[in-house]
Write a structure and sequence with these properties.
By secondary structure, this protein is mainly alpha-helical. The chain has nine helices and no strands. It folds into two domains: 97 residues, RNA polymerase sigma factor, region 2, helix turn helix motif (Rna Polymerase Sigma Factor, Chain: A, Orthogonal Bundle), CATH 1.10.1740; 80 residues, Winged helix-like DNA-binding domain superfamily/Winged helix DNA-binding domain (Arc Repressor Mutant, subunit A, Orthogonal Bundle), CATH 1.10.10.
Length: 194
Amino acid sequence: MGVIVLSNKEQHSIADDRMKSDEELIKGCIREDRHMQGLLYQKYADKMFAVCLRYSNSREEAEDVLQEAFIKIFDKISKFRQEGSFEGWMRRIMVNTALRSWDKRARKFEPGNLDDITEPAQPAHVLDGIGAKEIMQMIRRLPEGYKVVFNLFAVEGYSHKEIGELLNINESTSRSQYARARKNLMQMIEKIES
């Protein structure tokens, strides 16, 4: 395989592309500049894919959600009001798109309340020796309702009230789904340790 040699102009062009600020990328995307859209996608696709993957059952499904969400971002980018981080705005679109995709699949929430859930004891060393990849795999194995609520609350930082509004469920259902998710995760961790 041969070596590709870039001219100084090409090298500077690539470096310039990497140095584009979000503001420059946003302005370019508003103008529907395909190059700027590509740069925006390259800059954020990996991070946003990780978000989509947390709400999906497979990589293929996450890729579909990512694609659909970026189309929404490009369509709505002129509505970004610069009132928070651009990445946070995009993350919200990713989460909402993933939730809509999840809506199309079977939405399953187990009824119940917190009274019938006992928290397992949690030794301080419980996560020692377990990597982020393994934890994410455990989360992906949770039942659908548990997984979605756990991700929204523990990973994305939504309150149970906000989760209830997003998913059209009671706040108490969100709390019980989260408690059950934690209990299931603790049981998975205990199996690994034993």
